[in-house]
Write a structure and sequence with these properties.
Chain lengths: 541, 353
């Protein structure tokens, strides 16, 4: 079927396109104007047409997310189910996540923290998120098997093979390291860890582990650069950790997760001040580096992280006063409820710093919008954040309600910049798609997957981006006037990577000894899923 | 497909029609057991959501001792493999864990990872029959009280020479301590006290709770329920919103009080059926069939034997896929639940709010 979305303002920064025009779609793909009459016409007059949104870092599945629901049963509100899906309005549930993203015009979302030990559970949960294409990053950097290889200096090829085996077995889309060595150090009594501190029992450092993973990712040809969660998240002086980690990458491709939580310069008077300028300059000067924000929004949330060293240290700030840490295999996991106090001095400064990083960015395509859901706040706040980026007066109104510390310790109030729609598309579409190496999405050039969001152009950007007028997934309407109209299933994107059979044998023996169950028990077979769930993504040539 | 209606062998279609009729006539059906592979657990929630049933599990006593303590106070936990690999001190709380195969493994090995590697492992006992324990403390006043006393010693609130004081000192001297227990035996107040003990110990060392899994597949149900409904297993859909209520949706209570007027018991992984099942019109989907287990009994494939399926793996502490071990001509529980759902959708309108 040939369709045309007619007369909308088509915004595609990858094609330098921002003008009223038509978008042609056939067989689930964007096509050039074919010179034929369309079978279907969508009137998009007064609307903005963008590629579907792409999420690179949102905790939407896995053991921590499950625990957060059990620890805080009342965090989300459930409403009566709509027609067609019994759980779509169950607050915080997989179906709710898919529906809520889709209503905002997002069509792809990546869970950034899949431990190989729990790959099957995470993948089953992801597969139950409807409407979106999904993916997950395989977490490495604390497991004894990898640390043993490194301690014994078994060489880069062995590390590459072990990483490839873990990605292949867990069916990940990329690789993430989370405070590399930190969880292991925590189990051996450590309370903090920096880049060059020795990790007990292994004689290794974060620098050594991360460096080995950076190389392995390049050797394998993973399209997504190593996704790095640095040491010392959230502490005054964390900007030093960020800068040192960037230096340690030595020009290799690297993605920094939730940079806002590292943009805290130690203040002489105690506490922290914005290091947004420093972080923005780091990224501007290093074309192989990218970041996502981890923007803070005010209100109750829950922090979920495999950085159990950090979560243990943060337990005393839990609000309400309960938390769950699992010092399990490899990273384990940690869940600590948190309240970003409305108009509180600390939370206000955190809020300002995230916006400041985005507004100081010289390259929005390498500056990805996230709230590190739910760590900085829920992803449902993206429309409001976009509003603040696009509207200086709206920003000033909000700043006026906040304590003076925002102006004293951040540069936000002095920033005049207003994001354009093209820049928003870079922040939420083309940037994240390029970062994940997904060439078929994030843009509207011919050949693109027809994942398209149509929004009513509205100066109230919050309203505009909360409920899209129309969302297409692979050319099929899934949302109309902000409501889901078809409950179709997307696919989970996983990297097509070959595992070395020698490493598979060695790993099987290692795992059998440790778990009494071998590599088979870590598998994510198609047979575990109802119908086809996966789609292969090729490695870099 | 072996099936029985009122004890008489019959064919699949007749049994499914009888099961659908039984559920369609109910005002407040319960779907219970859920001792099954993930595909069947998902199908059970889907059916419950569509017909307005409530859900309960075979191992709910232990599961809710855990979940109650978690939602009130949080948790500090580890896994069996980490305990075997790292723990130099294991406190066995109560009687049940001594009968668990993990105990034998712990007794016969030393830690191999982390700062306690190669050290001897000490087994300690609180309130259990402890032939292998280096030190055993009784719990004459009950386990929660014994844990409270132990905790008071660990915190320094109580002192003086006693077996409990020795135990507290042993725990504080451990470098990686595991607190092993059966939540059904310990109960929610005991689990909460044990978690408090773990939290206190972590001020100076590392200590984590390790709960044994109970009967059935509750450890698989909990995550599936959480991602499907946003809530823990005991959820009711009578008002089309998933409502979590551990008391209201206790299937035994509902059956005994007469609130529930039909039940579907799901046990493709065999587990003892509860007595209350005989008190309500019932359907049973069983991996190990018994013709008189319910009014309508349908034999379904047993995961990991007759068909492939995702199950809780105790040693891995994870969901894992178990392929079929041989061919079997039995339907999956998920497919039977889906057929029931289709029949009920045709015969029953959505319940009123
Ligand atoms: Zn994160």
């Amino acid at each position: 079927m040939l369709s045309v979305i007619r007369g909308g303002r088509v915004v595609d920064p990858t094609a330098g396109r921002d003008a009223v025009g038509d978008l042609w779609i056939e067989d689930g793909r964007v096509v050039a104007p074919p010179g034929r009459e369309p079978d279907r016409v969508v009137d998009a007059a007064g609307c903005v047409v963008m590629a579907g949104g792409v999420e690179v870092h949102s905790h939407i599945a896995g053991g921590n997310v499950v625990t957060s629901r059990l620890l805080l049963p009342d965090l989300y509100v459930s409403e009566a189910a709509p027609e067609g899906h019994p759980f779509a309005h169950a607050g915080g549930a997989a179906a709710w996540i898919g529906a809520t993203y889709a209503r905002m015009g997002y069509t792809t979302a990546v869970e950034p923290a899949m431990p190989p030990t729990h790959a099957l559970a995470t993948q089953l949960e992801l597969a139950d998120i409807p409407l979106l294409d999904r993916g997950a990053l395989t977490v490495m950097g604390n497991d004894d098997h990898l640390l043993q290889l490194l301690r014994e200096r078994q060489g880069a090829a062995a590390v590459r093979d072990l990483v490839a085996l873990n990605v292949a077995t867990s069916r990940g889309l990329g690789v993430k390291c989370i405070n590399a060595g930190g969880a292991s150090a925590f189990k051996d009594g450590a309370l903090k860890l920096s880049l060059d501190e020795e990790i007990p029992c292994y004689g290794l450092t974060t620098r050594a582990i991360m460096g080995a993973l950076l190389d392995a990712v390049e050797e394998i040809g993973v399209p997504h650069p190593l996704h790095v969660h640095c040491n010392n998240l959230g502490l005054p002086g964390a900007d030093d950790s960020f800068a040192a980690t960037l230096d340690a990458a030595e020009g290799r491709r690297i993605h920094f997760a939730h940079a806002q939580f590292y943009a805290y310069g130690a203040d002489e008077g105690g506490g922290f001040r914005s290091a947004a300028e420093r972080i923005a300059r780091c990224i501007a000067d290093n074309p192989n580096a990218t970041l996502d924000i981890g923007q803070v929004v005010f209100g109750q949330t829950v922090t979920v992280s495999l950085d159990i060293l950090r979560q243990f240290a943060g337990r005393k700030g839990a609000k309400p006063k309960k938390w769950a840490i699992n010092a399990g295999d490899a990273e384990g996991g940690g869940v600590v409820p948190f309240l970003y106090r409305p108009r509180g001095p600390t939370s206000s400064l955190q809020w300002a710093i995230g916006l400041e990083i985005m507004l100081l960015s010289t390259d929005p395509e390498r500056t990805i919008l996230t709230t590190d859901h739910p760590n900085g706040g829920p992803f449902t706040q993206y429309p409001r954040i976009i509003h603040l980026l696009m509207d200086r007066e709206e920003r000033a109104r909000e700043i006026a309600t906040l304590p003076a510390v925002v102006g004293e310790r951040s540069g936000l109030p002095g920033i005049e910049r207003e994001y354009t729609l093209s820049e928003i598309a870079q922040l939420t579409r083309s940037g994240p798609a390029r970062l994940l190496g997904l060439t078929d999405r994030g843009h509207l050039r011919p050949g693109a997957r027809a994942d398209v969001a149509v929004y009513r152009d509205d100066p109230d950007r919050t309203a505009m981006f909360t409920a899209a007028k129309l969302v297409l997934k692979d050319g099929t309407p899934i949302v109309e006037d902000g409501e889901v109209v078809e409950w179709r299933a997307g696919r989970t994107l996983s990297l097509a990577v070959e595992a070395d059979t020698g490493m598979a044998r060695r790993t099987d023996a290692y795992l059998t000894d440790r778990f009494g169950a071998g590599l088979d028990s870590f598998a994510v077979p198609d047979a575990a899923f109802e119908g086809p769930a996966f789609e292969a993504v090729a490695c870099r040539a | 497909m072996p099936a029985w209606v009122k004890g008489d062998a019959t064919d699949a279609d007749t049994a499914i029609a009888a099961a659908a009729a039984l559920l369609a006539a109910a005002r407040a059906p319960v779907i219970a057991g859920l001792s099954a592979e993930v595909a069947a657990i998902r199908a059970a929630y889907d059916l419950a959501g569509r017909i307005g049933a409530s859900v309960d599990t075979a191992g709910a006593a232990g599961t809710y001792a855990e979940l109650g303590a978690l939602s009130r106070a949080g948790a500090l936990t580890t896994t069996p493999a980490e305990t075997v690999g790292r723990a130099d001190a294991v406190l066995v709380v109560g009687e049940t864990p001594w009968r668990d195969p993990l105990l034998k493994r712990l007794a016969g090995t030393k830690p191999v990872r982390g700062r306690a590697a190669a050290a001897d492992r000490t087994l300690l006992a609180l309130g259990g029959a402890a032939s292998g324990a280096a030190l055993a403390c009784p719990a004459d006043q009950g386990l929660p009280q014994a844990l409270a006393l132990l905790r008071a010693h660990v915190r320094g609130h109580l002192a003086g020479a006693s077996a409990v004081a020795d135990l507290a000192a042993r725990l504080a001297a451990g470098r990686y301590v595991a607190l092993l227990y059966d939540p059904a035996e310990l109960g929610a107040p005991g689990v909460e006290m044990l978690q408090g003990l773990a939290i206190d110990l972590n001020d100076a060392t590392r200590a984590f709770a390790l709960a044994l899994s109970g009967p059935g597949q509750d450890r698989a149900v909990v995550p599936v329920s959480a991602w499907t409904t946003g809530q823990a297993p005991r959820v009711g859909f009578g008002r089309r919103v998933p409502e979590h209520d551990p008391w209201r949706f206790d299937a035994a209570r509902q059956a005994e009080s007469g609130e529930a007027d039909a039940a579907l018991w799901l046990a493709s992984v065999p587990v003892a059926a509860p007595g209350w099942l005989a008190r309500v019109p019932s359907v049973a989907l069983l991996g190990e069939p018994a013709a008189d287990a319910a009014q309508v009994v349908i034999q379904v494939g047993r995961p990991g034997r007759d068909l492939g399926g995702v199950l809780w793996h105790e040693a891995r502490a994870a969901l894992t896929y178990r392929p079929a071990s041989g061919p079997a001509d039995l339907p999956s529980a998920a497919s039977v639940l889906a057929r029931l759902g289709e029949r009920l959708a045709a015969s029953r309108s959505v319940p009123a709010c």
